[in-house]
Amino acid sequence: MPLPGSGEYGADAADLSNTVLSANRVEKTYRNGTRALDEVRLDIKRGEFVSLLGPSGCGKSTLLKMFAGLEEPSHGHIRWWGKNLATVGTPDRTLAMVFQEATLMPWASVVQNVRLPLELKHMPRTESDVRVRDALKLVGLDRFEDAYPRELSGGMQMRASIARALATRPNLLLMDEPFGALDEFTRNKLDADLRKIWSQQDLTVVFVTHSIYEAVYLSSRVVVMAARPGRVIADVPIEAPGAGGMRDDAFRISPEFMGYCKILSDYLTLANQENQEGGAHDAAHH
Ligand SMILES: Nc1ncnc2c1ncn2[C@@H]1O[C@H](COP(=O)(O)OP(=O)(O)OP(=O)(O)O)[C@@H](O)[C@H]1O
Which range is the signal sequence, renumbered to this chain (predicted)? Predict the structure, then answer.
């Protein structure tokens, strides 16, 4: 019997108006010949929280960079709100990216760091002040406006990095393993806060992670990828708890949570097996 989520996924022509991101048969081969992605089809709808989960090297970051417009597909195409990225730069359709490193300017205070993208857009100071204050409040850093990055813990630096992204009021937030370097307790706390922020805003999130637990806790859907070449092998909606249900600490130890972890763990085992077989296959060719 197929695992849940192993059926059809990809373009759903009837629902394009609601599609924030769509990857249609996207391939990526880097200049050194590495085939990072093969025929990826993926649609992401408005308001979804989608995690990309998969073994190292399966192309999660490559796909996210293409979603951010930082890399071009070698074949196929990506659409943002049904269009090319160059034509969607309207104020109500914006995207922001958060990386694994907080990438804060060390010589600037928290408030100056968070204000930077707005200054680059030449936003009037009265408006940027409101946005910066709102963003810092959302991430719980409103009492640390004047602190410098070196005075903040790793978790707080990441909060500042998220605030910098949120200050642009993005519709689409792309996050590349933002909490991977944090201890588990801090990571769980940031996951909970991120989920709350997402649930309160009109925000679509694509989140790269290695962690099954993090993916299940955060997501409305988890896309599992395999390597050599990178591709989507499963697309699993996380429907528990039911509509409006809270994902609190109790959810983390619930039978539903464990059930989803088991499904994703089985897919990852499959992805890793294919990875090893692919490796053996590659080796046989050398
Ligand atoms: N700029 C590049 N030039 C050549 N090869 C690259 C480049 N960036 C990534 N790759 C290769 O493409 C493949 C996919 O890499 P990518 O970083 O997207 O995977 P990932 O799933 O995000 O991995 P990880 O979980 O380890 O971050 C890997 O084999 C990687 O070595």
Answer: none
